[in-house]
Amino acid sequence: MSQLRVEKVQEFIKQEISKIILTELKDPRVGFATITQVEATGDLRSAKIYVSLMGSDEQKADTWKGLQSSLGYMRSEIGKRIRMRITPELSLHLDESLDYSAHIQELLIKIKQEEGNQ
């Protein structure tokens, strides 16, 4: 399968899952979640969905549980919206890169302030 086709399917899944989370999920546990990336296998049989969560630790945990329990619904919706013989198996993965970059930013600000105080 061509790399271009895989990339198109990845982008389609990313857009559609984002729409589903934003407008269709009725689970009250699901708070603020952003799809940061989708990685599909070359044969398009499975796709890893990377999710960044916002909020307190408790809100993130609730959102994660809500998203996990909605995976079947999301897969069936993707199956209805994409023209493929096989709908990819979806798996969620936590993307903590935004949290990490915010932490680094805080450290840099703290260092700059300490340097200014000396």
TrEMBL record:
It is found in: Cytoplasm. One of its GO terms (cellular component) is cytosol. GO terms for biological process: maturation of SSU-rRNA. Its main location: cytoplasm. It holds the Pfam family RBFA. Keywords: Cytoplasm, Ribosome biogenesis. The keyword Cytoplasm applies. Monomer. Binds 30S ribosomal subunits, but not 50S ribosomal subunits or 70S ribosomes. NCBIfam families: rbfA (TIGR00082). This is Ribosome-binding factor A. It comes from Pelosinus fermentans B4. The lineage of its organism: Bacteria, Bacillati, Bacillota, Negativicutes, Selenomonadales.
